[in-house]
Design brief:
The protein folds into three domains: about 210 residues, Bira Bifunctional Protein, Domain 2 (BirA Bifunctional Protein, domain 2, 2-Layer Sandwich), CATH 3.30.930; about 130 residues, YbaK protein (Alpha-Beta Complex), CATH 3.90.960; about 100 residues, Anticodon-binding domain (Rossmann fold, 3-Layer(aba) Sandwich), CATH 3.40.50. Helix content is about 30%, strand content about 30%. The chain has 16 helices and 31 strands. Strands 3, 7, 8, 9, 10, 11, 12, 21 and 24 form a nine-stranded mixed sheet that branches. Strands 16-14-15-17-20 form a five-stranded mixed sheet. The protein has a five-stranded mixed sheet with strand order 28-27-29-30-31, sandwiched between helices. Helix 1 crosses helix 12 and helix 2 crosses helix 12. It binds one RNA strand of 77 nucleotides through strand 8, strand 21, strand 24, helix 12 and helix 14.
Length: about 575
RNA sequence: CGGGGUGUAGCGCAGCCUGGUAGCGUAACUCGUUUGGGACGAGGAGGUCGGAGGUUCAAAUCCUCUCACCCCGACCA
């Protein structure tokens, strides 16, 4: 592409709404325009990146015999009513009626559509497994779109679906997809982690699910991992253990004065003990099947509650912190809440890290009083419920107790799930097995956020000057700038450009005649991996062109004859 | 949806408190001079001040309503 013919404009200033590097740089470098909240236009260079990402995905999925299809973006409401998600997802889905009053929606995902296709075609176990995918636009009316492409309402997603006769087959399909995903992100040149994840509403709790996380400072997810083993999990899911805590056991419970000390830090400082010698008492209200119940959640004083774990443990539809007035009604004093002698309307849950036979400082349920020497196994009337509810922390150990964990941030770009028979059952998709018996096949579903991956690649790879694209997904491989204005040098540059193109090198030729500074700034901002400069003055002296690598700044001087092979070598090194 | 904020030229901002000629930087345009890290000079162009209503002789500025967008939370590729 010749820049003199391109529709491209960079900017010196960043639109104020852009807060994170990927959004700022995509706007500044003229790759993206905003159309509305969470809705963007992909300009030519962005589209090239998107297409490269898509093609890598296609190649890897085709290898595992997944077949590409395209499902309609607008789907009939009927399908969603069949699966029961029409009402469930009404906040996320844009729903509307056609002129005849029939319900329609913009697809936020396509389990229903694909199951509908499947049940119309597949009737026999001999046709299984089936693997289908599509890459197209999704619309989710997110509660709060933000961070540019990171959480748009309209976005491009690859969604794949597999159908299997039994669990064994589903596991095999899952494993293939896991491998394909690993290959996809490897080929894109991204630093990523594969982590155990929480299934959310998507699957049953025992089904496998993993997330693919691009490692980046601006990531919204926390990844718990160990360097000495292959353990990695999203913090929502991670179960790790604390080590080297020494507890004591007091012989009796005594009340102590703690005037105006409402926080654990205050009380423990006052008593000169470590915070884990106390119990943190949190009151939560869960709603399950429209029934409300209240829970007192106990954690070691320096631990934090993981709400996802609590929600899963309680099998709750919603979970909120209990309102102040309800806390009062339950006979609790905020700031001095504790598990001793409290209301029978409260369900008490202990975190796994608590040693039930040791003594702790707890709130006394009296103003300005705490209790010392509370031992759960001794001082609780009823049997004690205990489960893992805390957030993992750096310095914890994996379950086996051998590997210390750390935490880093990631951006979720891919997620693979085992769905089981949820949709095939709801939508009566059945095949005959080898006994002639009707069975509901098991499903897996697998997503990659294409546009989010583009943003994540920038989050991971940029500097003060601009973006730094990995070779495999760069809009072009080479930025070729010409400094000079004589007719001879222009002719030479044009010939070089033509020869690069005919050698199948993706080159962006800056023939706009700008000053060198402006060209270099644009080049660094756009972040193509390789920059070639033909400078009239230098070339007359030395007959050499300059090759500079965006990522490391390395410079090579090459002759016109050696240029193409050197560039090809550099490209192949990075692919 | 709750809390906070912002809307003035393509982009970034000032002006608003204390009402009275619509301003700066940058980009874009023309002419000339420039070519290895966002060149310089000169000239011109660009605005329903988010929208509606109100107060006033007079509103970007004060009042009311409204819309859009951004940030913090629940959601997710």
């Amino acid at each position: 592409m010749r820049l003199s013919k391109a529709c491209w404009q960079t900017y010196k200033e960043i639109p104020k709404e852009a807060e994170i590097p990927s959004h700022q740089l995509l706007m500044k470098a003229g790759l993206l325009h905003k159309s509305g909240s969470g809705i963007y236009q992909y300009l030519p260079f962005a589209l090239r990146v998107i297409q490269k990402i898509e093609n890598i995905i296609r190649e890897e999925l085709n290898k595992i015999y997944s077949q590409e299809i395209t499902m309609s973006m607008v789907t009939p409401g009927e399908l969603w009513k069949e699966s029961g998600r029409w009402d469930l997802m009404e906040n996320l889905m844009v729903q509307f009626e056609d002129r005849g009053g029939k319900d329609l929606c913009l697809s936020p995902t396509n389990e229903e559509s694909v199951t509908d296709i499947f049940r119309k075609i597949v009737k026999s176990y001999k046709q299984l497994p089936v693997s289908l995918y599509q890459i197209n636009t999704k619309f989710r009316d997110e509660i709060r779109p933000r961070f540019g492409l990171m959480r748009g309402r309209e976005f491009i997603m690859k969604d794949a679906y597999t159908f299997h006769l039994n669990k064994e087959c589903m596991d095999k399909g899952y494993e293939e997809m896991y491998q394909a995903y690993s290959n996809i992100f490897k080929r894109m040149g991204l630093d990523f982690a594969i982590v155990e994840a929480d299934a959310g509403n998507m699957g049953s709790t025992d089904s496998k699910t993993h997330e693919f996380q691009v490692i980046a400072e601006t990531g919204e997810d926390l990844i718990v991992y160990s360097e000495s083993s292959d353990y990695a999990a999203n913090i929502e899911k991670a179960e790790t253990i604390r080590k080297n805590l020494s507890f004591s056991k007091d012989s009796e419970v005594t009340e102590i004065d703690t005037p105006k000390m409402k926080s654990i830090a205050d009380v423990c400082n006052h008593l000169k003990v470590d915070q884990y010698q106390s119990l943190k008492s949190l009151v939560y209200t869960s709603i399950t099947d429209a029934k409300e119940s209240h829970h007192l959640v106990l954690l070691l004083g320096d631990d934090e509650l993981n709400e996802v774990k609590l929600k899963n443990y309680l099998n709750a539809t919603y979970l909120v912190m209990t309102k102040d007035e309800t806390i009062k009604d339950l006979g609790l004093i905020k700031g001095f809440i504790g598990p001793h002698n409290c209301s029978e309307n409260l369900n008490i849950v202990y975190d796994q890290a608590i040693d039930l036979d040791s003594s702790y400082i707890i709130g006394a349920n009296k103003v300005d009083k705490h209790l010392k020497g509370f031992v759960p196994s001794r001082n609780c009337k009823d049997s004690v419920n205990q489960t893992d509810l805390r957030n993992s922390k750096p310095g914890d150990y994996t379950q086996c107790g051998e590997h210390e964990v750390k935490i880093k941030k990631g951006i979720e770009v891919g997620h693979i799930f085992q769905l089981g028979d949820k949709y095939t059952k709801a939508m009566s998709a059945q095949v005959l097995d080898n006994n002639g018996k009707k069975v509901n096949p098991l499903m897996g579903c697998y997503g990659i956020g294409v546009t989010r991956t583009m943003a994540a690649a920038i989050e991971q790879n940029h500097d003060e000057q601009g973006m730094i694209w990995p070779m495999a997904i760069a809009p072009y491989q080479v930025y070729f700038s010409l400094i000079g204005k004589s007719e001879e040098i222009k002719k030479l540059a044009s010939d070089i450009y033509d020869s690069l193109v005919s050698d199948k090198i993706e080159v962006l030729f800056d023939d706009r005649g700008l000053g060198p500074g402006a060209m270099f700034k644009d080049s660094d901002l756009l972040g193509l991996p390789i920059r070639i400069t033909l400078g009239e003055r230098d070339y007359k002296e030395s007959n050499l062109l300059e090759i500079k690598l965006r990522k490391c700044g390395t410079v090579h001087k090459v002759s016109r004859e050696g240029l193409n092979s050197k560039v090809k070598e550099l490209i192949n090194n990075e692919l």
